[in-house]
Write a structure and sequence with these properties.
The complex is a heterodimer. Chain A is of the alpha/beta class. Chain A has two domains: about 25-60 and about 100-215, Rossmann fold, CATH 3.40.50; about 65-95 and about 220-400, 3-Layer(aba) Sandwich (Rossmann fold). Chain A is built from 17 helices and 14 strands. Chain A has helices spanning about 5-10, 30-45, 50-65, 75-80, 100-115, 125-140, 150-155, 155-165, 180-190, 210-215, 220-230, 245-255, 280-285, 325-330, 340-355, 360-375, 395-400; strands at about 20, 25, 70, 85-90, 115-120, 140-145, 165-170, 195-200, 240, 265-270, 285-290, 295-300, 335-340, 380-385. In chain A, β11 (about 285-290) and β12 form a beta hairpin. Chain A is globular and about 55 Å long. Chain B has helices at about 5-15, 35-40, 60-75, 80-90, 105-110, 110-120, 140-145, 160-170, 190-205, 215-225, 235-240, 245-270, and strands at about 20-25, 50, 95-100, 125-130, 150, 155, 175, 210, 230. Chain B is built from twelve helices and nine strands. The interface of A and B includes residues 27, 183, 288, 298 and 303 of A.
Chain lengths: ~400, ~270
C-alpha cells in the first residue's frame, strides 16, 4: 500500500464539496444544484440525528431482516483447499440483495424531507425492486427507469416492480441499459425537482449521494467485522465484492479501510475479456472522466464519448464506478481485478452446487475471483465474499445459456 | 472586449435583442454543419450556439438526444467541431460562436489544449451544461486566459446568492433556463421568466439570454421583451431532423423558422 491512511484522512472522504481526492464532486446542470445543496444540508444533520438513526436501525432489523449471517462455506473451503471461505449473506435480506439497505435509508430520508414522489434507475432490476418495495412500505409514489434491453433480460423483476405498485418506464435512448436509465432518471428529476426524491442505487452520482449511499451500505462491513471477530477471533485476511457502481463493495470495504492487514478486492465485469474491449471494467481498463454528476474512472473512447459496455450481468453493465473506488484504487488501498462472463458463470454453478447458495450473476464475479484467490492462501487464513444478491432473477439467463426453455 | 460582448453591446445600442439559434454540430452530417451555420446567420442569427454531441446528454430532451446520436453515428468529435468553426470563420469573421456541451469530451481533450484550440479556431465562448461554477475553479481561468467567455446557466431554482456568485464567474452573457425540465419540453411561462429575469438583473450586469421553450415568433417576441437575447434550439434541431436528406429543403425550412422570430424581435424593438 502506497499511502498510510489515517482517521483524519477519512474525515476528508469526501471533503466538504464532495470530493474524494480528485474524484466525486457535483457535476450537474444548474437546475439541480439548489436541490442537492438542500439534500446535503438536511442529510448532514440527519446522519447524526438519533431519531433518524434509530428509525433506520429499526427498519434494517425488523423489515430488512438484519443482521445477515456470516456463513462458513465448509464444503467449498475443503474443495478448494486454501483459505477458509466465508459468505456474507446479503442475499438473505428482504428482496434478496444488499440494495434495500440503501433504499430504506434514502426513502426514510425522502419522508423526513417531505418528498412524496420517488424516482430510481435500475439495471438488473434489484435496485428497482428494492425501491418499489420501500415505497410500498412507506406509501410513496414510485417511478423506475430501466433500459429497454434490461427490461427484456430481467422480465421477472419488471413484473415484481409492477406488483409492488411502481410504474416502470422503458428507456430506449443510447445503449438502452443502466447508464441510459440513469440519464432518463436525471431528466425526470430536473423536471420534477420540487416534489421528487431521486433514490440513486449506487455510490455514484453528485455529492452527497456517494456519501449517503456509503453510510447506508456500511452496515455490511460493520456486521462482517464484528461477526468475523466473534467467529474467528480475528479480522479476515481479505474481503471481496463485485463492483458495478460499487455500492455493495463500498459497504463491505469502508469499515475495514483503516485495517491495513485486511485486503480489499473489488471484482469488475470482464465481459468477453478485457482485451476484447467488450467488458464493464472501468477501474481495470478505463480512465478518469465526468459522467452522471461525478468525476471517476470511466469507459470512454478517445473523444470522451462514453463507451458501450458488455457484461452477462445487467447490474454490472455500467461504464462508470463510484468515485470513492477511484480514489481507493489510486492510493492503492483497494485492489481491482476482473473476471470474464465465463468465469462468473462457472462461479455461479460452483457455489450453487457446493453450498446450495445461488448467487446473483453480479455476485458470481466476486465468487469466481475468490475461488482463484483462496486456492493460493493457507488454511488458517480467512476470506469473506460479499454475497450481494441471490440468483433467482438470473434463472432465465442461465436457462438460455444452457439452451433450456423455462 | 470579446466578440460576444461587442455584439451584445451593439445590439443594445440599437435597442435590439439577440437571436441565438442552437444546433448540434455534425447533425445530420458533419459536412452539413458549416453551411447550416451560414444559413442561420443569413436568416437573422446574432450569435450561434453550436452543440458538441455527447453520448449521454442528460439535460436534453428526445429531439437533441437524437441529434447527438445522428452526429455520433458519423463520428463527430470535439476536434471535428473545432474544425467546423475554423471553416465557418473563413467566411464569417464577425458572428460570435459559443460551444455548448457536456464536460467529458473537453476533459478527454485536456482543458488547456481545448481552450487553446478553441481560441485558434475562432470560438468565442464555452457553455458546459454539467460544470457548475463550484467545479469550474480550475477550468474557467483557462478559458478566460484563452480569451473565451465562460457562459454559465441560471435556473428558476437558482437562489439569489448563487445568482451573484455565478455571475461573478461568468462573462459574455448569462443563459437563463426558462423552466425546470429538459430541452424541447413545453413549459414556458412568460410571466415567470419575466419575474426571474428581473431578479437576475438586480444581481448582475451581464446580459441575460433566455432559452428552453422558445419555438416561434410569438414566444420569441414575448421573451425578447424582458431578456437581452432569446435562444432557440429544439425547434430548429427538429427541423433539421425532418429534412435530413434534402439540404435545399432544409435551408428553406430553417429560414422559414428563424426569419419570423427575427422579424418579431425587431418589430418589438422598433415600437
Amino acid at each position: 500500500m502506497s499511502v498510510k491512511l489515517t482517521e483524519a484522512m477519512l474525515s476528508e472522504l469526501p471533503d466538504q464539496r464532495g470530493h474524494f481526492g480528485v474524484y466525486g464532486g457535483r457535476f450537474v446542470s444548474e437546475t439541480l444544484m439548489d436541490s442537492l445543496a438542500q439534500l446535503e444540508q438536511e442529510y448532514m444533520k440527519l446522519r447524526k440525528d438519533p431519531e433518524f438513526l434509530a428509525r433506520f436501525d429499526e427498519e434494517l432489523k425488523d423489515y430488512v431482516g438484519r443482521p445477515t449471517p456470516l456463513y462458513l462455506a465448509e464444503r467449498l473451503t475443503s474443495e478448494i483447499g486454501g483459505a477458509r471461505i466465508w459468505l456474507k449473506r446479503e442475499d438473505l435480506n428482504h428482496t434478496g440483495a444488499h440494495k434495500i439497505n440503501n433504499t430504506i435509508g434514502q426513502a426514510l430520508l425522502a419522508s423526513f424531507l417531505g418528498k412524496k414522489r420517488i424516482i430510481a434507475e435500475t439495471g438488473a432490476g434489484q435496485h428497482g425492486v428494492a425501491t418499489a418495495t420501500v415505497c410500498a412500505r412507506l406509501g410513496l409514489e414510485c417511478h423506475v427507469f430501466m433500459g429497454a434491453e434490461d427490461i427484456e433480460r430481467q422480465s421477472v423483476n419488471v413484473y415484481r416492480m409492477k406488483l409492488l405498485g411502481a410504474e416502470v418506464h422503458s428507456v430506449t435512448s443510447g445503449t438502452r441499459t443502466l447508464k441510459d436509465a440513469m440519464n432518463e432518471a436525471m431528466r425526470d428529476w430536473v423536471t420534477n425537482v420540487d416534489d421528487t426524491f431521486y433514490i440513486i442505487g449506487t455510490v455514484a452520482g453528485p455529492h452527497p449521494y456517494p456519501l449517503l449511499v456509503r453510510d447506508f451500505q456500511s452496515v455490511i462491513g460493520r456486521e462482517t467485522r464484528r461477526q468475523s471477530l466473534e467467529k474467528t477471533g480475528q479480522l479476515p485476511d481479505a474481503v471481496l465484492a463485485c463492483v458495478g457502481g460499487g455500492s455493495n463493495a463500498i459497504g463491505m470495504f469502508y469499515p475495514f479501510i483503516l485495517d491495513e492487514d485486511v485486503r480489499m478486492i473489488g471484482v469488475e465485469a470482464g465481459g468477453y475479456g478485457i482485451e476484447t474491449g467488450q467488458h464493464a471494467a472501468p477501474l481495470s481498463a478505463g480512465r478518469p472522466g465526468v459522467l452522471h454528476g461525478n468525476r471517476t474512472y470511466l469507459m470512454e473512447d478517445e473523444n470522451g464519448q462514453i463507451a458501450g459496455t458488455h457484461s452477462v450481468s445487467a447490474g454490472l453493465d455500467y461504464p462508470g464506478v463510484g468515485p470513492e473506488h477511484s480514489w481507493l484504487k489510486d492510493v492503492g488501498r483497494a485492489e481491482y481485478v476482473s473476471v470474464t462472463d465465463e468465469e462468473a458463470l462457472a462461479g455461479f454453478r460452483r457455489l450453487t452446487r457446493t453450498e446450495g447458495v445461488m448467487p446473483a450473476l453480479e455476485t458470481a464475479h466476486a465468487v469466481a475471483y475468490a475461488l482463484k484467490m483462496a486456492a493460493g492462501m493457507s488454511p488458517d487464513q480467512n476470506l469473506v465474499i460479499n454475497i450481494s444478491g441471490r440468483g433467482d432473477k438470473d434463472i432465465n439467463t442461465m436457462a438460455r445459456i444452457d439452451g433450456i426453455d423455462v | 472586449m470579446s466578440r460576444i460582448q461587442q455584439r451584445l453591446q451593439s445590439l443594445r445600442e440599437q435597442g435590439r435583442k439577440a437571436l441565438i439559434p442552437f444546433i448540434t454540430a455534425g447533425d445530420p452530417h458533419p459536412d452539413s454543419t458549416v453551411a447550416i451555420m451560414h444559413r442561420l446567420v443569413a436568416s437573422g442569427a446574432d450569435i450561434l450556439e453550436l452543440g458538441v454531441p455527447f453520448s449521454d446528454p442528460m439535460a436534453d430532451g428526445p429531439v437533441i438526444q437524437q441529434a447527438c446520436e445522428r452526429a455520433l453515428v458519423h463520428g463527430t468529435s470535439l476536434r471535428q467541431v473545432l474544425g467546423m468553426v475554423e471553416q465557418f470563420r473563413e467566411d464569417d469573421p464577425d458572428t460570435p460562436v459559443v460551444l455548448m456541451g457536456y464536460l467529458n469530451p473537453m476533459e478527454a481533450m485536456g482543458y488547456e489544449t481545448f481552450a487553446a484550440r478553441a481560441r485558434e479556431a475562432g470560438v468565442d465562448g464555452v457553455l458546459t451544461v454539467d460544470l457548475p461554477p463550484e467545479e469550474a475553479a480550475d477550468v474557467a481561468p483557462l478559458f478566460r486566459n484563452a480569451g473565451l467567455d465562460a457562459i454559465f446557466l441560471l435556473a428558476p431554482t437558482t437562489t439569489d446568492d448563487r445568482v451573484s456568485a455565478i455571475s461573478g464567474h461568468g462573462s459574455g452573457y448569462i443563459y437563463y433556463v426558462s423552466f425546470k425540465g429538459v430541452t424541447g419540453a413545453a413549459g414556458l411561462d412568460v410571466d415567470d421568466v419575466s419575474k426571474n429575469v428581473e431578479r437576475i438583473r438586480r444581481l448582475t450586469d451581464l446580459p441575460v439570454a433566455v432559452g428552453f421553450g422558445i419555438r416561434d415568433a410569438d414566444s420569441a417576441a414575448s421573451v425578447g421583451r424582458v431578456a437581452d437575447g432569446v435562444i432557440v434550439g429544439s425547434v430548429l434541431v427538429n427541423t433539421i431532423a425532418e429534412h435530413q436528406t434534402d439540404p435545399d429543403a432544409l435551408h428553406r425550412a430553417l429560414d422559414e423558422r428563424l426569419r419570423p422570430m427575427r422579424e418579431a424581435l425587431d418589430a418589438r424593438a422598433s415600437q
